Structures are given as C-alpha cells and as structure tokens.
C-alpha cells in the first residue's frame, strides 16, 4: 500500500510538472506564433510585387509537360493538421526525459563513503550560506520552499544531494539544507540532472561570492579538503576501544589479546643485580 501511494504521489508530481510545462510552452508559443505570423505577413506583402510576373511575360509562361507531370506523379500528403500534434508529442517527450534523466554515479574509490554524517560545523556553515532556508526548488526552479528561520532551527536537516547509499561522498559540495518534509520526500532517490542544474543556478544568486565554488554539486570524494575553521578535524575510523584510551593488542601466534595490567596492580620490578 505504501508503494502504491508513493507511486501515485510521484505520478501526481509528474502530472503537475507537465501541466506547468505545457502552460508555459503554450504561452510562449502563442506569443511567438503571433510575432512570427505578423513578420511573415509583412514579408509576403513586401515580396508580393517581386514574385508577380511582368505583363509582357505573364501570357507566355508555360511549363514543359515532363516537368508538369512530376508534381502529379508524386503522392501528396498534407501534414498541416498533424504538425501541432507532433510538436506536442515532442514537448511531452522532452519534458519526460528531463524529469527522469538521473545524475551519473560519482567515480569514487568505494561503494559507500565510510564517513556517513556531516559535522556540526557543516550544519552551521550550510545554514549561514542558505540564510537558514530550505533549498528545495519546484516549478522548474522558479520557486523555492518558504520554510526558514525558527522552523528550520527545529526541523532543518542536512542531506546528501546525491544519496550516500548510492555512492555519494560526505563532502560539502554534496551537502544540501532541506526541511523535514522535503528531505523525507527526497529519501534516497537519485536526483535528476534538471534538479541539479536548477539548484546550481539558484545557488549562484544567494551564495556569498567567496563560496560560489560550492554552488556546483559534486558528489565525488575530496581527500584534500581543509579542516574546519573552528578546529574540528575529520578523524579516520578508529579501532573499537582505541577511542576510550585503551591499548589494543592484536593476536600474534595464536595468543588472545587482553587488557594491560594497571600500574598499581603490577609487581614491583627487581633492580638488576651487578655481576
């Protein structure tokens, strides 16, 4: 049942996007058609006298029989009524491709990034860059989610633009700031190229000038990324127990590793005897 509802929601979202696209294309086509028609009528009016035969040659205009028969020997197909239908089908196909063309999988050396979560410094950084407002775009990137401020302080969520489960790296170039509603709707779905391009164009407007390089989404790993300004460092995964200050002894020659004996419980060492 959940899958059916999710599929119905996706179909309804595609229907809304297609409806807006057809409405926008219809408005553009109507204005453009009016302009083109007016220009064609003006060109026909100006070229009419040039295309008209002069009186002294009008009565002598004759076509040779072989040339005249070519027109009637070829099948005549009037495609005029089908042109609007063909244009509509081409538009629907183009919109469908744009809405379903996913991003390419990033070329990373692992299936999943060992680092799963972003840091608190990343959270403060993305909130400052986005003005603490959800980055979700809709209607072909023309509108942006209105959730911001106090709502985002309690419901804002960091997420990978290209999903971590599909191979996206946990880097700031793959970080987006979304409200809980749009983040849950996004889930682990691979974003389309159109969504990525719309986010890039929108970020160019509201990101500070010195952070414009982060407007372009890049889900590949960047091992040369500098540490955060507030002193937080990115640590490699440690062995279990090492983070608690304990010494880990590996197995060697079949022996079993054990904890070292505390200093207070050790027997005092005897001083070396002189020969």
TrEMBL record:
It comes from the Bacteria. Residues 221-275 are annotated as: Disordered. The keyword Membrane applies. Residues 221-231 have a biased composition (Acidic residues). Keywords: Membrane, Transmembrane, Transmembrane helix. The keyword Transmembrane applies. The chain crosses the membrane at residues 20-41, 82-99. Gene3D superfamilies: 1.10.30.50. This is HNH endonuclease. It comes from Bifidobacterium adolescentis. The lineage of its organism: Bacteria, Bacillati, Actinomycetota, Actinomycetes, Bifidobacteriales.
């Amino acid at each position: 049942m959940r899958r059916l509802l999710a599929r119905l929601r996706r179909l309804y979202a595609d229907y809304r996007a297609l409806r807006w696209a057809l409405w926008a294309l219809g408005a553009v086509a109507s204005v453009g058609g009016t302009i083109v028609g007016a220009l064609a009528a003006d060109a026909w009016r100006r070229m009419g006298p040039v295309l008209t035969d002069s009186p002294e040659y009008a009565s002598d205009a004759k076509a040779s029989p072989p040339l005249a028969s070519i027109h009637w020997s070829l099948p005549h197909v009037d495609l005029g009524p089908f042109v609007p239908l063909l244009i509509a089908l081409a538009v629907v196909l183009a919109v469908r491709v744009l809405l379903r063309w996913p991003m390419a999988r990033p070329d990373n050396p692992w299936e999943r990034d060992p680092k799963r979560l972003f840091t608190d410094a990343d959270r403060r950084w993305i909130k400052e860059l986005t003005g603490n407002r959800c980055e979700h775009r809709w209607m072909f990137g023309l509108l942006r989610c209105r959730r911001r401020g106090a709502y985002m302080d309690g419901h804002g969520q960091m997420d990978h633009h290209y999903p971590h489960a599909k191979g996206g790296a946990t880097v700031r170039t793959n970080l987006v700031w979304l409200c809980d509603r749009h983040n849950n709707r996004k889930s682990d779905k691979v974003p389309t190229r159109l969504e990525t391009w719309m986010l890039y164009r929108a970020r160019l407007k509201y990101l500070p000038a010195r952070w414009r390089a982060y407007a372009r989404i890049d889900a590949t790993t960047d091992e040369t990324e500098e540490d955060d300004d507030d002193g937080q460092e990115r640590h490699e995964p440690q062995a279990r127990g090492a983070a608690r200050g304990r010494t880990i002894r590996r197995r060697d020659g079949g022996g079993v590793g054990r904890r070292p004996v505390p200093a207070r419980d050790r027997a005092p060492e005897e001083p070396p005897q002189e020969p």
